[in-house]
Amino acid sequence: MIGFLRGRLAAKHPPGLLIDVNGVGYELEAPMSTFYGLPSVGADVGLHTHLVVREDAHVLFGFGSERERSLFRELIKVSGVGPRIALGILSGASVDEFYRCVEAQDAASLTRIPGIGRKTAERLIVEMRDRLKALALGPAFEAKGAPAGTARNASSPQAEAFSALVALGYKPPEVTRLLQKVDPSVTTTEELIRHALRAASS
Length: 202
Prior knowledge:
Layout: E1 4-13, E2 16-21, E3 24-29, H1 32-35, E4 44-53, E5 58-63, H2 66-75, H3 83-92, H4 95-103, H5 107-110, H6 118-134, H7 157-167, H8 172-180, H9 189-201
Antiparallel strand pairs: 1-2, 1-4, 2-3, 4-5
Helix pairs in contact: 2-3, 4-6, 7-8, 7-9
């Protein structure tokens, strides 16, 4: 099991990351909650990781804090919630916001996340209520580096935001609608996604 990676952030195209660890490139997928705290491409970064082994692939997921990874690991134990949906939950809500939804039994907010219907939301509330108490709440270390910046790539921030939201489970027409709601002054990929996710949850 790969539990942690530290190296140079070689590329970031939400939800995908590439980290150069001593000349070996590790591809990871990360929730937007982690992306918001990433440094600029080329800077050093450290991430907690979780490896999911499938018949057709080994997928490595990266998290900026132990709290995020702990929640991810508990979420994928819930029936009907796989890694993709867990990634969507962490992208649409912070760990604390998810706690509040569970404590308040707010199924309506959870159903706004792609892939979560009413029954799954209710199951999450019931099954996660006790599990949350066992989660490690204190962050061991966060993603390190300079303040987040715009990745250097040929794609436009709008195109990258569109692709990232589709990868998180939103349907293309819905993504178009959400991005149209974002203020034109917002220009970075991460901020476009952040504002679109806020619009989706409102």
